[in-house]
UniProtKB/TrEMBL annotation:
It comes from Jiangella asiatica. Keywords: Membrane, Transmembrane, Transmembrane helix. Signal peptide: none annotated. It comes from the Bacteria. Residues 25-71 form the Putative Flp pilus-assembly TadG-like N-terminal domain. InterPro entries: Rv3654c-like, Tad_N. Residues 1-22, 118-156 are annotated as: Disordered. Residues 12-22 have a biased composition (Basic residues). The chain crosses the membrane at residues 25-49. This is Putative Flp pilus-assembly TadG-like N-terminal domain-containing protein.
């Protein structure tokens, strides 16, 4: 009997790899991956919601500031832009521009996005208010005028 035939190599029981355990821990990795994807998606939705909220706030502040300034202008006040600035500030916006043209007032306001992300821009919005135009000149600048139905710019 030769030595090679008689001595079968046996592994120590602790060194054997049990079958079916090569995937051990894979479920944990998958769960962590799914959690990371969900958190990233929620962060993206939060950033978009912050931008949308700032945009809506800027639009509302611009509309209210323009209407308040036009009302003050119609009542004979000398500086309607001071009222526009007060209303814009009360609505969380900064007045960037206020132009009085006859009985119309056009304002531009800016709202800073509150996300703490510098790459998300501030929101600027414009609004115009005043009495309806009686001269028949069509609205060619794309901004709706007071008492003018939306979508009918320049239509007689």
């Amino acid at each position: 009997m030769s030595v090679a035939q008689g001595s079968a190599r046996r592994e120590h029981p602790a060194r054997r790899r049990p079958r079916g355990r090569s995937q051990r821990g894979a479920g944990t990795v998958l769960v962590l991956l799914v959690v990371m994807v969900v958190l990233t998606a929620l962060l993206g939705v939060g950033v978009l919601a912050t931008g949308h909220t700032a945009r809506r706030q800027a639009a509302a502040a611009a509309d209210l500031a323009a209407l308040a300034a036009a009302r003050r202008l119609a009542s004979g006040e000398v500086d309607p832009c001071a009222e526009a600035e007060r209303i814009a500030r009360a609505n969380g916006a900064a007045l960037c521009e206020c132009v009085v043209d006859g009985l119309e007032v056009e304002v531009q306001v800016r709202v800073a996005t509150a996300s703490g992300m510098p790459w998300l821009p501030d929101q600027d919005r414009r609004a115009r208010a005043g009495p309806p135009r009686a001269d028949g000149v069509p609205n060619t600048d794309g901004l709706p005028r007071m008492n003018e139905p939306p979508g009918l710019d320049g239509v007689a």
